[in-house]
Amino acid sequence: MDKADMQITSSLRSPPAAPKNRRLVLLAYECLCTFEFGTAVEAFGRADDVFGHPLYDLSVASVEEGVFGAQGGVRLVVDGGLELLEDAGTIVIPGWRSVTAPASEALITALQKAHQNGTRIVSICAGSFVLGEAGLLNGKRATAHWNSTEILAERFPQVQVEHGMIYVDEGSIITSAGGAAGVDLCLHLIRRDYGIDVANRTARRMVTPPLREGSQAQLIQQPVPQRRNYSLAPLLDDLRNNLNAPMVIEQLARQAGMSRRTFIRRFHDATGTSPGEWLLGIRLEKACAMLENNALSIDQVAELAGFGSPEALRHHFRQRFNTTPTKWRKAFNERVVMG
User: Fold this and answer.
1) Which of 9, 172, 222, 294 could form a disulfide with 269 if both were Cys (CB 3.0 to 4.6 A apart)?
2) How many angstroms separate the CA atoms of 291 and 301, rounded?
3) What is the value of pTM for the model shown?
């Protein structure tokens, strides 16, 4: 355990922060996408390992009445209908039956009303098309599964479609790509609401990486190396444990037994991003965790997270999060008080 981890671990643990409205309504529908649905249930509906209760008060609302069918021959009976959306703090749309299947007028009206009332709405994969029909993406950035972003852009020209990103956070509207990107979106939401520690704990329970930035590429060409000799895992672990060490590409390439060009290509294939962007994300994650635990000064956080100076830390917080380290810590503490 390094110095920063020891200081964080020894600090008093704060109670969990929470969104103002913990009611999270998960949408269900005929021909439900069970993977996306299950991802949301696992992330939001399971009890937290430390606090002993779920992070959200989860209920499931059906678009159709009565028992209906999901993909894979599953039949569902849920908590209620669209009336459950009326007092939700967050609504999650886990996919959609088809990018060409229209949403019902009742669903569109319910989503529009909820958004007007300040409800946060989250979509996974083709759920973006439902939000597009409701007009809730107009003037905003959004994404979807890589094989349907062109269709999304063509059908909804007022939407700024991000074709490669795994998720896009526009505040009250958050969209993601398909499949495993839904896991990243769920962890991002938990990180927003409860902080890094709780999100990382959820990720460990789900056996998934704790942080992939939304700007990371959807398509990773070689997520599993074909030959063991090409595994970058030891090198990545070494970088995580030595955040203050300068990143010299030539040195890392030699350590991996590759040429500079091959190393950069294989690094991107394995992580979906460049070495510099990957390391910046790790340093920011470390900084956020230390800020949220209130154990260290801004200067200490900057040093231990590998930024070298508080000025560099502030610069990257403004660039990535549009805020400052001090405001990040203050906002987190305010959520703790509200929780």
Assistant:
1) 222
2) 7
3) 0.69
